[in-house]
Fold this protein.
Amino acid sequence: MDEETFVKVMVVDDSATIRRTAQTLLTKEGYAVVTAEDGFEALAKIVDHAPDLVLLDIMMPRLDGYQTCAVVKSNAAFRHIPVIMLSSKDGVFDKARGRLVGSEGFVSKPFTRDDLLEVIRQHQPQSTTVSI
């Protein structure tokens, strides 16, 4: 399989444990993973790495997930990238606010391997889908 066929997922979370857990789970499933610890780092890495999908924590210092998502979605070069919000708060308000800033989905923490894989499969670009 060529490296170009990998779906590249960015995991943005201020918790090193969450980043490492998601990276390990997704790498085992054949995804290329880029991580960032906050919104500012994520924005820089989106430019450099052009991920196919972003998993974005809501509660982060400096630039939270809502703000980061709004910036991504306001940029014509990146608004096509699906953004999935991650949060330990899974109230209706949090989900609605995520939708308002442009997110395509929501995963509650703690998440399972199946939670991550399902949301990625739902939102990954069809051109990079690899059938096994």
Summary: Residues 16-28 form the longest helix (13 residues).
